[in-house]
Description:
Elements: E1 30-37, H1 56-59, E2 67-74, E3 81-88, H2 93-96, H3 107-116, E4 118-126, E5 133-135, E6 143-145, E7 150-154, E8 173-175, E9 180-185, E10 191-195, H4 208-212, E11 246-249, E12 259-261, E13 273-276, E14 282-287, E15 291-293, E16 295-300, H5 310-316, E17 323-332, E18 352-364, E19 367-370, H6 377-382, H7 384-391, E20 396-397, E21 399-404, E22 411-415, E23 442-448, E24 457-465, E25 475-476, E26 490-495, E27 501-505, E28 515-519, E29 529-534, E30 540-546, E31 551-556, E32 584-590
Parallel strand pairs: 7-12
Antiparallel strand pairs: 1-32, 2-3, 3-4, 4-5, 4-6, 7-8, 9-10, 10-11, 11-12, 13-14, 14-16, 15-20, 16-17, 17-18, 18-19, 18-24, 21-22, 22-23, 23-24, 24-25, 26-27, 27-28, 28-29, 30-31, 31-32
The structure holds MU-OXO-diiron (FEO) and calcium ion (CA) (3 copies).
Amino acid sequence: AHKGEKGARGLRFAPVAPNTEDAVTIPDGYRQNVVIRWGEPILRGAPAFDPENQSAAAQAGQFGYNNDFLALLPLPGERSRRLLVANHEYTDEILMFRGYDAENPTREQAEIAWAAHGLSAVVVEGDHRTGRLTAVPRHHLNRRVTATTEFRLTGPAAGSDLLKTSADPTGRKVLGTLNNCSGGTTPWGTTLHGEENFNQYFANSSRATDKRYGIGTGATERKWERFDKRFDVAQEPNEVHRFGYVVEFDPYDPTSTPRKHTALGRFKHEAATVRLTEDGRPVVYTGDDERFDYFYKFVGSKRMRRGGSRADREHNLSLLDEGTLYVARLTGDSPAADIDGSGKLPADGEFDGSGEWIPLATATAHGAVSHVDGMTADEVFVFTRLAGDKVGATKMDRPEDIQPSPHTGKVYVALTNNTNRGKAGSAPADEANPRNANKHGHILELTEARGRAESTRFGWSLFLVAGDPADPATYFAGFPKDRVSPISCPDNVAFDPHGNLWISTDGNQLGSHDGLFGVATRGDRRGELKQFLTVPTGAETCGPLVEDRRVLVAVQHPGEVDGASVEKPASVWPDGPGKIVRPAVVAVWRADGRDIGI
Ligand code: FEO
Ligand code: CA
Ligand code: CA
Ligand code: CA
């Protein structure tokens, strides 16, 4: 059925129609398999998954819950094997534990949840005739990182008074990572992971700085503060300052201590994606996923080393410790009167303009300097949102994943939605966020000045204004709207080998389940958006990786529907009726063995 399908190279498949199937629905002529599910044992000694008798010790050796970011890394010397790294963003206790009492969770349940957070590294094996992937349990590189694994704080704020706790008077050693959402793969062979909604784990705060981060004044939903006082801000005020960073993980060294990079700032990091300057320095883009928050860029000052020695690797692990952190300010080029909040294109036919990267602080080998009046460098790196507020950064509609095109260098920023835009007391629509009550989100295309990753100026335009194409307040880069798929709430973005942008969604507001879409960014098909798959009931689509012969997605929080529980499931994916719903990673390939979408 896919033969003769029209589309840009890489996007020649029959689009999947919007639907509400409790399944991963893929185009005709494609096949899929579940690569790994929550609870599958990956470490030596870990037991088989038994949801009725789960324990923290078992979970610590099993694949975690709610897979989000995915990386698939080479494994030299092991034929047809690769190393999969996955984030486990958060836990859904009501869907994990039969008879869960949210008011009175047990210590064991809390400890299972700690062990179900974090990261997994697991070797996977491909079948050379298909795109099927299967996990290789007990491989020596398989690893779990959880909410209790030891981390090192690095960079300019490490060791500062703001980061010292009673358990760690050095301010350099943290236990665990939380709410790892999306991430990135570095050119030096490590992975980056954004600690996003860390606020939800911390209770009993009364400080203004915490309020800016959404940390609550009362108990938390999971009640972890009952089992470990570090989650109680009233008892351990600085522990919360040690979450909300970009984490770097070296999956090739199973003994490595993962790092939290203070130089990239502290906020609800959706992700972190890296490119290099022409002279080999890292540039990292990272969004703060909150209504009316900002997106950022870090420009490193040290060059990556290409050699493979231990010293080179150690050097590369320090690349994100020195450099300058910037925040984005955008200015539209159309008169303000042209932007009425409806999404109607301005008279010049485009939502577009110019922008600047405003420096916040610079970290060097000899210390750090703040560029923000009234804030020290430590304060800028730990209370980065407040620094953005002070310099007048542009309040965006929830900046999620950001991805530079490896083909053109243009940078794509997913802005998932913001239903509060234009409400009384909130910022009104502007040219970069042109719809009030923005339910469906948009994608911004950013062009660094002179094409240089380290530039402090850029141009921008909106590439996609999402929604039902029949809605006049949508825009698909100028492509005819009768020939595109409807899309709502773009979240993660990735490029395929042909230079097409792939977009996964979270929170579809058009009546369909979430899904994965591909869209050409160049040529006469620029803006032709096609849906490649949909995910089961209650799930969001995460982690997309699009290779020549395989698409990999993380199906996150299937069955997460109001009122659902183990006893009353909204989804029975992936194992069918009578089985507990399980977040899982899915591989999709073409039945005839040819490349995706050609
Ligand atoms: Fe975890 Fe912003 O998505
Ligand atoms: Ca304009
Ligand atoms: Ca996300
Ligand atoms: Ca999201």
